[in-house]
Design a protein that fits this description.
Layout: H1 11-20, E1 26-31, H2 43-52, E2 57-62, E3 80-84, H3 91-100, E4 104-109, E5 127-131, H4 145-159, E6 165-169, H5 174-183, E7 187-188
Parallel strand pairs: 1-2, 2-3, 3-4, 4-5, 5-6, 6-7
Helix pairs in contact: 4-5
The chain binds D-xylitol-5-phosphate (DX5) and zinc ion.
Length: about 200
C-alpha cells in the first residue's frame, strides 16, 4: 500500500485498516524535489510508522545519491529499499549497502530506463521496481510501453538466472493489475488507482 496516498489526518485508522487487509508492505515514497519534481515523506515519518505497526517497509528512494540517506531510514530484515538506476554513480556499492542492513535491495527503473541498466548488478538484486508511471505524483495514467516492459523484465531475469521479484508502481488499478500479473509482476503498489 502506498503511504503517500493515505489520509494523514487519520493515519492510525489507515494503518489498522491496512493491517486488517493483511497488506504485506507499506510503500513509502521518498522524494527530494530534484531527482523527481516533488517532496513527500521522510525518515521521521518512517520512524513514526515503525512505532505503529510491524508491517515491513518498502522504501522507494527517488533521490540523488541515495547512499547518503539509506542509514537514516534504519532499514531492517524484511524491508525492501529501492534506488533508481540513474540516481547514483556507485549503484553496485549502494545495493550492497542496502543488503548489509539486512533489507532486500531493489533497482528502480523509470519508464524510459533500459533493462541493460541491470547488466552488471543483476546478481545484487532481490527485486526490480518497474515504474509504470513517471515517478513523482500519484494519480497518473499508465505509460503504455510499461506493460510490455514488465514481461521483458521477467524474460531478462530468467535469462540471467535471477530470482529477483518484479514490483510494479503506478496506476495499479484492478484492471491494470491483472495485465501486470500476466506479464510477470509479483508485488503491486496500491495507490489512488487501487480503490474499489
Ligand atoms: C509514484 C508513486 C505513485 C503512487 C501510486 O512515485 O509511487 O505511483 O504511490 O499511486 P497511483 O495509484 O495514484 O498511481
Ligand atoms: Zn513508489
Amino acid at each position: 500500500a502506498s503511504l503517500m496516498c493515505v489520509d494523514f489526518a487519520n493515519i492510525r485508522d489507515s494503518i489498522r485498516a491496512l493491517e486488517a487487509a493483511r497488506v504485506e508492505y507499506l510503500h513509502i515514497d521518498i522524494m527530494d524535489g530534484s531527482f523527481v519534481p516533488n517532496f513527500t515523506l521522510g525518515p521521521d515519518f518512517v520512524k513514526s510508522l515503525r512505532s505503529m505497526t510491524d508491517i515491513p517497509c518498502d522504501i522507494h528512494l527517488m533521490v540523488w545519491e541515495p547512499e547518503r540517506h539509506i542509514a537514516s531510514f534504519s532499514p531492517r530484515a524484511g524491508d525492501i529499499v529501492s534506488v533508481h538506476a540513474e540516481s547514483t554513480v556507485h549503484l553496485q556499492r549502494t545495493l550492497q549497502m542496502i543488503k548489509d542492513t539486512g533489507a532486500h535491495a531493489a533497482i528502480a527503473l523509470n519508464p524510459a530506463t533500459p533493462l541493460y541498466s541491470m547488466d552488471y548488478v543483476v546478481d545484487d538484486l532481490d527485486a526490480v521496481l518497474v515504474m509504470t508511471v513517471n515517478p513523482g505524483y500519484a494519480g497518473q495514467k499508465l505509460v503504455p510501453a510499461a506493460l510490455q516492459k514488465i514481461g521483458e523484465t521477467r524474460k531478462y531475469l530468467n535469462e540471467h538466472k535471477s530470482h529477483a521479484l518484479i514490483e510494479v508502481d503506478g496506476n495499479v488499478s484492478l484492471e491494470n493489475a491483472v495485465k501486470m500479473r500476466e506479464q510477470g509482476a509479483d508485488i503491486f503498489v496500491a495507490g489512488t488507482s487501487s480503490l474499489f
